[in-house]
Fold this sequence. Notes:
The structure is a single chain. The chain is globular and about 65 Å long. 33% of the residues are buried. The chain is of the alpha/beta class. Strand 5, helix 5 (145-160) and strand 6 form a beta-alpha-beta unit. The protein has a seven-stranded mixed beta sheet, sandwiched between helices. It has ten helices and seven strands. It has one domain (2-275): P-loop containing nucleotide triphosphate hydrolases (Rossmann fold, 3-Layer(aba) Sandwich), CATH 3.40.50.300. Magnesium ion binds next to helix 1.
Amino acid sequence: xxxxxxxxxxxxxxxxxxxxxxxxxxxxxxxxxxxxxxxxxxxxxxxxxxxxxxxxxxxxxxxxxxxxxxxxxxxxxxxxxxxxxxxxxxxxxxxxxxxxxxxxxxxxxxxxxxxxxxxxxxxxxxxxxxxxxxxxxxxxxxxxxxxxxxxxxxxxxxxxxxxxxxxxxxxxxxxxxxxxxxxxxxxxxxxxxxxxxxxxxxxxxxxxxxxxxxxxxxxxxxxxxxxxxxxxxxxxxxxxxxxxxxxxxxxxxxxxxxxxxxxxxxxxxxxxxxxxxxxxxxxx
Length: 284
Ligand SMILES: Nc1nc2c(ncn2[C@@H]2O[C@H](COP(=O)(O)OP(=O)(O)OP(=O)(O)O)[C@@H](O)[C@H]2O)c(=O)[nH]1
Ligand SMILES: [Mg+2]
């Protein structure tokens, strides 16, 4: 199935690193087992090398991969329900552009770039606590809690506008959780967002919750895509959960939508949904 995923986040919030970390974690931790997971390039060859970016993304970037979920016993009930292939298109624009913080951008330009995000079926929002600075009236480009909130608020308005209202899934990633300290790292996502992004006047957590409606589903996931200190290898935490959650919704939906198709003669929709194997959960 074709799966569009747009990433949104300010400069250096970890979007490009996240994509590479996802590829890396799939290949290193999920390629063996009763269900194998693989990333294939556009030539359908399996990709095994994923390197973090060495510089900021310029003028947008599209990563096109196949993400394959393949039970190792073919023609089984498990395979009928849980074998899936996503042709993923990851839209990774540069943060300066997507936040309208380029020199001549301005609010209209910002809305235009969000419209591109709003068109995608799946959205990954990066909330990076390390970028936040205190209020500074002298620097209009300072990323304060207020500014982060207003970005998400504008996005929320666009997502809920009749023009863009549709079924979609949003993973809100609190990025770089390797930096947030022992006391928070094991807290639930509500506590993490409130501690890092709320203030007396700003309630980021409730704003994110309000994105959840009949059509849009939102999940907040704390992640880290930090590079290991001794090597270029990535040692991600929880990154795959932000993607698995999206894929699981889409796969269940595709099973529901395929009722009655001839190739499902042996496994009816209800059976396939019952047999559907969930994605692995939890931090790895
Ligand atoms: N500590 C830590 N650093 C991270 C993490 N993820 C990314 N970084 C660092 O953050 C910096 C920016 O990462 P990028 O992935 O290039 O950020 P981006 O959002 O793609 O930035 P633009 O392309 O400019 O929009 C890099 O130096 C990364 O090494 C993380 O989970 N933890
Ligand atoms: Mg980038």
